[in-house]
Amino acid sequence: MKVLIIEDDDKVGSFLSRGLKAEGYLTLLLQDGRALMDVCRQFEPDVIVLDRMLPHQDGLQLCQQIRSQAIPARILILSALSEVDERVKGLRAGADDYLGKPFHFEELLARIEALFKRDLGQTQSRQLQVADLQLDLDSMQAQRAGVPLNLTAKELGILELLMSNSGKVFSRERILTNVWGLNEDPLTNIVDVYMARLRKKVDESHVVKLLHTRRGLGYCLQPE
């Protein structure tokens, strides 16, 4: 399998190239995307590992350009911008997967293998499901009882956290840290505001409620 790496950091690019070659992949390393289209047509990569912050052109723009040219390669965006809203931007730009930096090489390798298997007809979408609530982690689209939910990036981040740990109670502080990051003021009531919005979208029209407040403890998601 051929992997095209677009990474402007010499150390990271060299590490990725050497690591993937050691696993038997044929790799090609670019430090920016200026010659990307020509390289894609000549090298014909199966997977493109694309850094988000590149000189000359943003990785999201490159991702959109690849898709507009109908290049069939799978795209894995690799970026230090790893908040939920940034991941959503990457997926909506046409990426097949998004991995934050710093990363473990074993996870990167597993994700590349999974992307390659899709082209072998072995696609298995990554989905979370609790009762009739579903969240597709590839497209970051949620639905309840088959009806799509119009959720913001932060709402999707909260939902992913709670669905991944169904029945587990998360304090406001832990939700704040996981979804907003460490720099958000822990005294803000933003978590309560977003939970109220999320509960309205997920539960309001359903008899079985999934989002629950545990007084003095926090929030959890599980069938009532």
TrEMBL record:
Signal peptide (residue range): none
Cross-referenced Pfam families: Response_reg (PF00072), Trans_reg_C (PF00486)
Annotated PROSITE patterns: OMPR_PHOB, RESPONSE_REGULATORY
Keywords: DNA-binding, Phosphoprotein, Transcription, Transcription regulation, Two-component regulatory system
Ranges where the Response regulatory domain occurs: 2-116
DNA-binding segment(s): 125-223
Protein name in UniProt: Response regulator transcription factor
Lineage start: Bacteria, Pseudomonadati, Pseudomonadota, Gammaproteobacteria, Alkalimonas
